[in-house]
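Propose amino acids for all 219 sites.
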């Protein structure tokens, strides 16, 4: 009797795993290589842009920002005060009434001295692709600096390019799990190729008043 390792089904499974690994590695290589010239950790190398896109991440139950998103907001605010960008676009998850990433990010930016009219909120940034495509379609962004951790920058900028943005990436340090991001880049490459539709809505031009995008605009 042949051992299990020699049975055809196990050989086929091994081939499938090997091919999957090769496809994943190739996808990661493509995403990283084609964005290499568009990402930097040196603020002085960034070209001026309309907006800093700040992708959401964990907001605690008390409304305070988690470490990853706090670093993103602080870097975006710094770009605004430096004059590199004219506005901030806070894009994240608000799929339930009790969880509001964009609102918490907006409040942090306002507390840091950003003018209310220059802070935009996207409550349907359910994924990086949603964030980038909606930036172009809803907020009519053409140029942006995507502010995110080193690990996520290549995929984020690649998706921004696919969404039609002249995008640069600002690297702001470590964060996240490399294995999970390895898989996310495979999905991201598929999204950049297929360009699926995202949640629609009325236009809120980035050169207008950001308060129009708030769930509770100022009167």
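Proposal:
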């Amino acid at each position: 009797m042949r051992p299990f390792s020699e049975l055809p089904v196990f050989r086929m499974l091994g081939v499938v795993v090997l091919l999957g690994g090769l496809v994943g590695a190739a996808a990661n290589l493509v995403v990283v290589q084609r964005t290499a010239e568009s990402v930097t950790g040196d603020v002085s190398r960034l070209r001026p842009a309309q907006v800093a896109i700040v992708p959401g991440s964990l907001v605690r139950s008390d409304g305070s920002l988690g470490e990853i998103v706090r670093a993103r907001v602080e870097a975006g605010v710094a770009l605004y005060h430096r004059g590199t960008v004219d506005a901030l676009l806070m894009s994240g998850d608000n799929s339930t009434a009790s969880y509001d990433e964009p609102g918490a990010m907006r409040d942090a930016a306002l507390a840091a001295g950003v003018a209310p009219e220059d802070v935009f909120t996207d409550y349907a940034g359910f994924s990086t692709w949603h964030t980038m495509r909606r930036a172009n379609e809803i907020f009519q962004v053409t140029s942006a600096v995507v502010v995110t951790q080193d690990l996520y920058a290549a995929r984020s900028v690649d998706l921004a390019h696919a969404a039609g943005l002249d995008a640069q990436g600002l690297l702001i340090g470590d964060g996240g799990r490399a294995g999970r991001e390895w898989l996310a880049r495979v999905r991201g490459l598929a999204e950049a190729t297929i360009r699926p539709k995202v949640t629609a809505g009325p236009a809120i031009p980035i050169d207008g008043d950001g308060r129009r995008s708030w769930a509770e605009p100022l009167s």
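The chain has one domain: 4-213. The beta strands are 39-40, 49-55, 85-91, 119-122, 143-148, 166-171.
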